[in-house]
Amino acid sequence: MTEHTNTLLGIFPKKIEELKKDGLYRSFVPFSHLAAERGHAVHGTDGAGRVQVWCSNDYLGLSQHPEVIRAQLDSTVEHGTGSGGSRNIAGTSAAHVELETRLAAWHGKERALVFSSGYIANFETLSTVISALPGIVVFSDAKNHRSLIEGILRTGCAKHIFPHNDLDELERALAQYDHDRPKLIVFETVYSMDGDVTPVRAICDLAEKYNALTFVDETHAVGTRGPTGAGVCEEAGENRPTFVQGVFSKAFGTVGGYVAGPDAALDYVRSHAPGFIFTTSLPHSSLDATLRSLELIQDGDALRRALADNVRHLKQALRAAGIGFLDADSHLVPVLVPGAERVRRVARVLFEEHDVYVTPINFPSVPRGAERFRITVPPFRTSGQIDDFVAALRKSLDS
């Protein structure tokens, strides 16, 4: 390399040091989850250590469900390990078509479109739809996920960021514009960092009053909320959102994401979104596993009840132990451990002394001083395991 390129690349070690100095450097611990011991994983490249994982997004434990595993194995034997191309180059399987049809019906929409991830589903759909509507104004909740934020920013459209779940401010912003000017409200139903739930019906009322489209992210709600697990919108009996986004990588226990909505709009996205057109599609086997997960979720009242029972037990145990947490109306239980150094130290003690893994959540994911762990308790967790976890957490906080 030339002296000039060495000088340019020399910027990066300095930036890494800045991240470490500011406590923002991210470390990754290799984990191999164990299907035979749900909630457990071996860690390290040699697989010598074994830990319990208490921060997984696999909310219902379906990634290790024997029927989901069997569906993927059988499909892999029949169809292979990859799709072989993008959706328009031999990469649309019968499983794609079936899954999109069933997702659309599940959410009461005309069409659904499957993407390689939830992030891509948000980013590509939002940026494509917004770019197609001249003069549109977007109203985005201040705590929206980065994928939503980036999808909006990519377009350079006019936008308002309203305070989290502040419907008075949202209405004031909407009222500034002519009734016929294109508008889009973007929000989530369950916010992952605080575990709180958005008043979907009230937002839909405002959208109707001010002639706005809506895009709702149900990432953390599909599978866990609603009579058939279709999310907070289903739970509220609300079918007015224009677009509904969900993922397979959390409660479904597989991989990928999707958006359901109007037929023509998503047909347009299918034909214009670069992240949909120019990427290899998900393998047939993964989608067959997702189809089986969908069946388990739609018939999964018992799973959702067990999840809710575990959340109640966890909160009771935390209260009894004097451990502070955000008591939100969802399956996500944020345990507050203020201080970047402290939350990392407590996580380290849990890991090294109790064989328990939880991810310390720092700035910029949460504000400085609001550091935390986000605890999840899938249906397979026992009361005894929850009590032991809380006892280990209490000891680690006191160390």
Automatic annotation (TrEMBL):
Substrates-to-products reaction catalysed: 6-carboxyhexanoyl-[ACP] + L-alanine + H(+) = (8S)-8-amino-7-oxononanoate + holo-[ACP] + CO2
Enzyme Commission (EC) number: 2.3.1.47
InterPro entries: 4pyrrol_synth_NH2levulA_synth, Aminotransferase_I/II_large, AON_synthase_class-II, PyrdxlP-dep_Trfase, PyrdxlP-dep_Trfase_major, PyrdxlP-dep_Trfase_small
Keywords: Acyltransferase, Transferase
Pfam families: Aminotran_1_2
Cofactor requirement: pyridoxal 5'-phosphate
Domain Aminotransferase class I/classII large per the UniProt entry, residue ranges: 53-393
Top EC class of this enzyme: transferase
Molecular functions per Gene Ontology: 5-aminolevulinate synthase activity
Cited PANTHER family: 2-AMINO-3-KETOBUTYRATE COENZYME A LIGASE, MITOCHONDRIAL (PTHR13693:SF102), CLASS II AMINOTRANSFERASE/8-AMINO-7-OXONONANOATE SYNTHASE (PTHR13693)
Protein family (similarity comment): Belongs to the class-II pyridoxal-phosphate-dependent aminotransferase family.
Name of this protein: 8-amino-7-oxononanoate synthase
Organism (species): Streptosporangium jomthongense
The encoding gene: hemA
